[in-house]
Amino acid sequence: MTERVAILISGSGSNMVSLVQSMTGDHPARPVLVLANSETAGGLAKARALGVETAVVDHRRFAGDRAAFEDALHARLTKSGPDILCLAGFMRILTEGFTRCWDGRMLNIHPSLLPKYRGLNTHARAIEAGDGEAGCTVHEVTAALDDGPILGQARVPVRPGDTPDELAARVLVQEHALYPAVLRRFSAGDRTPVFLP
Ligand code: GRF
């Protein structure tokens, strides 16, 4: 059975592109929707160019009413009938009501070696702490921010004199390898974590 995947983005969507491009051939899943919370998300045009249906549910329309925003999100997602949701640079915090609906079916990629550095500015915090390595994590989404069972991690060295942008670029290369590898395994019903390299 082919798993149907919806990908949620807020920005440039480079992880979304790597996920979409991976779902071909004998991959157990296919992309059915790319959804953004803003019309300005650069990834929307990339998704259309890849032939994937897109949608926008603009959180600003709901003027701080998080539950109403999530109801609209849920309604639009349900229309495309996804089995799996992938958050890929989706910059809205989701409440427990929403995460419970998609429990065990929603993944996120976070640019740190969780449980270190939940939240924002992960690369600056890793450099500031003097860490010798950094990386990224794919995890199941639960109500707690950047928490939930870890499905995969990839590590990169932190080099002397690295700026947060330089480190972010090195981590992003690994994100593009890790997220597709995890999604393939997850779509096949296997939740054994993937560790790269
Ligand atoms: C990535 O670093 C991801 O880990 C973080 O947001 C960034 C999104 O980048 N959650 P992109 O939109 O996939 O290019």
Give structural notes.
This protein is α/β, with parallel strands linked by helices. The chain has one domain: Formyl transferase, N-terminal domain (Rossmann fold, 3-Layer(aba) Sandwich), CATH 3.40.50. 35% of the residues lie in helices and 23% in strands. It has six helices and eight strands. An eight-stranded mixed sheet has the order 3-2-1-4-5-6-7-8, sandwiched between helices. α1 runs parallel beside α6. The chain is globular. The two termini are 30 Å apart. The relative contact order is 0.16. The site of 5-O-phosphono-beta-D-ribofuranosylamine has 16 residues, from α1, β5 and α6.
Largest sheet: 8 strands, mixed
- What's the order of the H and E elements? EHEHEHEHEHEEHE
Helix content: 25-40%
Beta content comes to 15-25%
The number of distinct β-strands equals 8
Low-confidence stretches at least 5 residues in length (pLDDT < 50)?
Answer: none
Task: Using the coordinates shown, work out and report the CATH topology.
Answer: Rossmann fold
